[in-house]
From TrEMBL:
Keyword Cell inner membrane annotated: no
Gene3D superfamilies, sorted: Glycosyl hydrolase domain, family 43
Name of the protein: Glycoside hydrolase family 68 protein
Pfam families given in the database record: Glyco_hydro_68
Natural source organism: Sphingomonas canadensis
Length: 385
């Protein structure tokens, strides 16, 4: 291990920051930012006979959104055919490639990886970046289950794979997929084996959602991921994990202790990611009301975050509670999986829209991009712009 990677390991070896019941209990007594109500005219399917959720842009080597020659951008999103029960989509998820035009339109370009390439029975969330040439793409993703398994399992492994981007006329495409490798190895001292959890929605344990971040202060590459705390006595033991790349061998990743723990409070701190803004680091994640410990307190389904002046420690909850914004009260499940982009715009997908979701009633799954939001960040305060 190099001196640089030792320094990074030491920096993140401190006890993780804590998101606690004390923080969440304060939400009820403070002004809560609510996102605008989504109507049927605010979104549309992307085509291809699929619904999409969890999306991310392809990033340039400096962390910005990569642009093609015509100004459009490439995105990836989880996609699956439409089902009467939208929860069934998770068992059929594949990563799809999309093009986002400057005019705002979305174009479906098909599955990102070829059939039979992924080692899982399905593909869950990740991130992607281009190298400095803008032609070689690295995809970080979650391989869930194992290819060919008789029944879907919830084993989760974090992989990387590489492809060439061909964008010379016609629709962009990814070719020559290779270098498939498992890159973040679960440390049992810190992270629970996700196979130990159940398969019911809201109780699945995590080792997923790798989000790439390059620290502008020193050029180190990190992956943030959703995990579950090892050795916890609580069923609600979500953490945000981290791995750091070896500067001398950027393809080698060292698994680090968690950055943030919600042990005893919340089961899933999903799609964690970092944005650097105004000299500070902002750590964001999404979570849902039904994955809080029912003994309370329970926060709304929304975007949450913390702020620090360094990656390894010092994280404090934004707005004193961690809550950045939540779905409207009249449609508490309308959107999910918020991702804050470098320009502070925020993407998410339309989930159960148009009202409350009552158990036993049909779900109104939107399966498309929700209207983009925009944040305003001022030190420890965050609000919708």
């Amino acid at each position: 291990m190099t001196a640089t990677s030792r320094d990074a390991s030491a920096q993140l070896a401190e006890s993780p920051a804590r998101w606690t019941a004390r923080h969440v209990a304060t939400i009820a007594n403070t002004a809560c930012e609510r996102v605008p109500l989504i109507t049927g005219g605010d979104f549309a399917p992307i085509g291809g006979g699929i619904g999409i959720w969890d999306a991310w842009p392809v990033q340039a080597s400096d962390g910005s959104i990569a642009r093609l020659g015509d100004g459009s951008s490439l995105w990836m999103a989880l996609g699956a055919p439409w089902f009467d029960d939208p929860d069934e989509r998770h068992g059929h998820a594949r990563i799809h490639l999309l093009r986002h035009g400057e005019g705002g339109g979305w174009h479906h370009l098909g599955p990102a990886m070829p059939d039979g390439f992924s080692p899982g029975s399905r593909e869950w969330s990740g991130s992607a970046r281009l190298d400095r040439t803008g032609r070689r793409l690295t995809l970080y993703f979650t391989a869930t289950g194992r290819r060919g398994e008789a029944a879907p399992s919830f084993n989760q492994r974090i992989f990387a794979a590489e492809a060439e981007l061909a964008a010379d006329g016609g629709a962009p495409r990814l070719t020559g997929w290779h270098a498939l490798r498992e890159i973040v190895i679960r440390d049992p001292a810190h992270y629970m084996d996700p196979a130990e959890g159940s398969g019911s929605v809201g109780t699945i344990k995590a080792f997923r959602d790798p989000a790439w971040f390059r620290d502008p202060a020193d050029g180190r590459d990190y992956l943030l991921f959703a995990g579950s705390q090892a050795g916890s006595r609580s069923a609600f033991n979500g953490v945000i994990g981290a791995a750091v790349a070896d500067p001398a061998a950027p393809g080698n990743w060292r698994t680090l202790p968690p950055l943030l723990s919600a042990d005893g409070l919340n089961n899933e701190l999903e799609r964690p990611h970092i944005v650097h803004h105004g000299g500070r680091y902002y750590l964001f994640w999404s979570t849902q009301a039904h994955v809080f410990d029912p003994a309370g307190p329970i926060g709304p389904t929304g975007l949450y975050g913390m702020v620090s002046d360094r990656i390894g420690s010092g994280w404090e909850p934004l707005n004193g509670t961690g809550l950045v914004c939540a779905n409207p009260r009249e449609a508490p499940c309308q959107a999910y999986s918020w991702l804050v982009l470098p320009d502070l715009s925020v993407t998410s997908f339309v989930d159960h829209w148009g009202g409350t979701f009552e158990p036993g009633t049909p779900r109104r799954f939107g399966g498309g991009f929700a209207p983009f939001l925009h944040l305003r960040l001022d030190a420890g305060r965050a609000a919708l712009a």
